[in-house]
Write a structure and sequence with these properties.
This protein is an alpha+beta fold. Helix content is 39%, strand content 19%. It folds into four domains: 80 residues; 87 residues, Ubiquitin-like (UB roll); 108 residues, Acyl-CoA Binding Protein; 121 residues, Pleckstrin-homology domain (PH domain)/Phosphotyrosine-binding domain (PTB) (PH-domain like). The strands form three sheets. Strands 9-8-7-6-12-11-10-13 form an eight-stranded antiparallel β-sheet, covered by helices on one side. Strands 4-3-5 form a three-stranded antiparallel β-sheet. Strands 1-2 form a two-stranded antiparallel sheet.
Length: 443
């Protein structure tokens, strides 16, 4: 319908005409008229020719109908910025708007790391980027530059794997898709996905507790998985051993436990990968963790222990890397299967057991990244004669989307990247959303 600009303008004019010359005996007729206009503005905006007169009409009527006119202006601004809703409103959504005094909003529950629920007030014009901004404000993040580094996933206990939501997607469109597909067991999960602004900054006060808990509960499972621990020749250095023992002691204290952990408990405080090392006996780990508790950790509060844990974990060599298991890579120099890591410095190919770096591609060398179902194609090096790597990755869609967001952070916009390419057919225009396409491309 966006192609039929004349029809859209005609609809806008007819609604305005009914509002201007309203002779209905119904008391709520004017309110319903403004609400109808608000619904339409969630999807379409007037043409450039009509726009100045349309905005003037809204501003001229804002005194008599302040809340509803402001709602229309808000929807207009969102549609102008994000392109408008994609799915038609459900009956529940329309009934909610018609019955409410203003925005027809709803309280939506999001889950933070650790399963902590957070309720946000949302409206029919709320996009995922708005939700993330609200979350960051409630977390009292001291560094506003980190806001864009967070993401929202939708997961279901019965459906396919989680989906990374595009910041420009409308929340109510996503919810309506869940209703249409009869998905009732979905959850909206918030995580930090980008690690561009590191080290993290924390204010040690009451307002920061929620943020500290958020990061702590996200990073503890990642530590235990051992994904960020690089092991060389089946050995770890003494420094790394003491660092892991310190984090184990901090996690024990952060759990509000007192006394000393047993040998069996210590096993649950260490990454799975280091427990497989035969050169360090369980008793040695236990003694080292006890020493860390005695030295300073035991006297800490639980919040102090969490804060110290976050400070220490940031010194890990692979901190800030997001990992994607790759079943195969068609490059003989890279052992398959392996792990593909996405970080602010580029694309890493890591040994699946030791996390040693087998190969890396800085973002400045990337020519293009394409996705076809569960495979990604990476072209890198010379623009005239680029090299090529194809990988089989289960979460190829998320990998491409994440790499694209890092590229936007380092200042390489899609438009400038397009100018460097010779085959313009393989790239999306700036307004497209690669997150949901069967074939996604960045650069």
């Amino acid at each position: 319908m966006n192609k039929n600009r004349a029809l859209i303008d005609e609809i806008m004019c007819q609604i305005i005409k009914q509002l201007t010359d309203n002779k209905s005996a119904k008391q709520d007729s004017m309110q319903l008229g403004w609400k109808l206009l608000a619904i339409v503005l969630n999807y379409f905006i007037p043409s450039e020719n009509l726009r100045p007169y349309f905005i003037k009409y809204l501003n001229d009527n804002i005194i008599q109908n302040e809340k509803l006119v402001q709602l229309c202006l808000n929807h207009y601004e969102q549609t102008l910025k994000y392109g408008g809703r994609k799915n038609m409103p459900s009956k529940v959504e329309i009934d909610l708007l018609a019955a409410s005094g203003r925005h027809g909003g709803k309280r939506q529950i999001f889950l933070l790391p650790g399963g902590v629920p957070l309720t946000l007030k949302t409206t029919s014009s709320t996009v995922i980027a708005d939700c993330l901004n609200l979350v960051c404000e409630q977390l009292h993040m001291p560094n506003s530059l980190e806001y864009d580094e967070y993401s929202i996933f939708i997961i279901s206990t019965t459906e396919n794997p989680s989906r990374l939501l595009n910041p420009n997607e409308y929340l109510f469109d996503i919810l309506s898709e869940c209703v249409e597909s009869k998905m009732t067991d979905y959850y909206l999960i918030i995580k930090r996905m980008l690690w561009f602004n590191i080290p993290m900054i924390f204010d040690n006060n009451d307002k920061s507790e929620m943020f500290i808990n958020f990061m702590y509960h996200q990073l503890v499972p990642e530590l235990f998985e051992g994904t960020m621990i690089a092991i060389k020749d089946n050995h770890i250095s003494d420094d790394l051993m003491h660092q892991l023992a310190l984090m184990a002691a901090l996690h024990y204290r952060a759990s509000n436990k007192i006394g000393l952990p047993s040998m069996r408990e210590v096993k649950h405080l260490l990454p799975a990968t280091v427990l497989k090392l035969k050169n360090i006996r369980p008793q040695v780990w236990t003694t080292t963790v006890h020493e860390e508790l005695y030295s300073s950790v035991e006297a800490m509060t639980t919040m102090e222990a969490k804060l110290k844990f976050l400070t220490v974990i940031q010194t890990s060599s692979l901190f800030g890397v997001t990992f994607f298991p790759a079943q195969s890579v068609d490059d003989a120099s890279i052992r398959s299967p392996c792990i593909i890591g996405i970080s602010k410095s580029g694309i890493l190919f890591l040994d699946i057991d030791t996390r040693e770096t087998l190969f890396s591609i800085p973002y400045n060398d990337v020519v293009s990244i394409r996705r076809r179902q569960n495979a990604i194609d990476v072209k890198y090096g010379s623009l005239n004669q680029p090299r090529h790597i194809q990988c089989q990755v289960d979460r190829a869609q998320d990998l491409v989307a994440l790499a694209g967001r890092y590229l936007s952070f380092i200042g390489r916009s899609l438009a400038s990247a397009l100018e460097r390419k010779t085959d313009s057919q393989q790239f999306h225009r700036p307004g497209s959303t690669s997150c949901n396409d069967p074939t996604s491309t960045i650069l």
